[in-house]
Automatic annotation (TrEMBL):
PANTHER family: INTEGRAL MEMBRANE PROTEIN-RELATED, MEMBRANE PROTEIN. It comes from the Bacteria. Pfam families: DUF1003. This is DUF1003 domain-containing protein. The keyword Transmembrane helix applies. The chain crosses the membrane at residues 42-63, 69-91. Keywords: Membrane, Transmembrane, Transmembrane helix.
Amino acid sequence: MTSRLDQPREIRRTLVPRPHYDPESFGRLSERIARFLGTARFLVYMTVFVLVWIGWNLLAPAFLRFDPYPFIFLTLMLSLQASYAAPLILLAQNRQDDRDRVQYEQDRARNDRSIADTEYLTREIAGLRVALSEVATRDFLRSELQQLVKELDAKDGHRTVP
């Protein structure tokens, strides 16, 4: 919730100060983590990590093993990783949804402007066509003059021929 500038802030006094963090920085960090979690590199790293873990705990001397066969500690580690990964991925998706929504609104506004411009230009072209239909064009004048020349030649031809 953002604070409003037209209202005073509430003064809260607590014995333990609340930690402050920048939501934007945290959001960017979560996007970077989510982007990394969705790569083949991460899958390879996790596979190597799990294989080394299992290999160590199966093949190492008994006094160096720290997680015997059911690998309960490995399961706990993977569950912990998943419990942090899921909210980070959701946060990154929410931020992407917000960006997509803003982009959609901008695209819609741009399309509305384009439609309005197109309609305006269509009206202008229609107006020009109406205005041009009332103005004699070069081709129209040329055809009219050719018609007059033919008529004059025809009249001259009738006079010379008795």
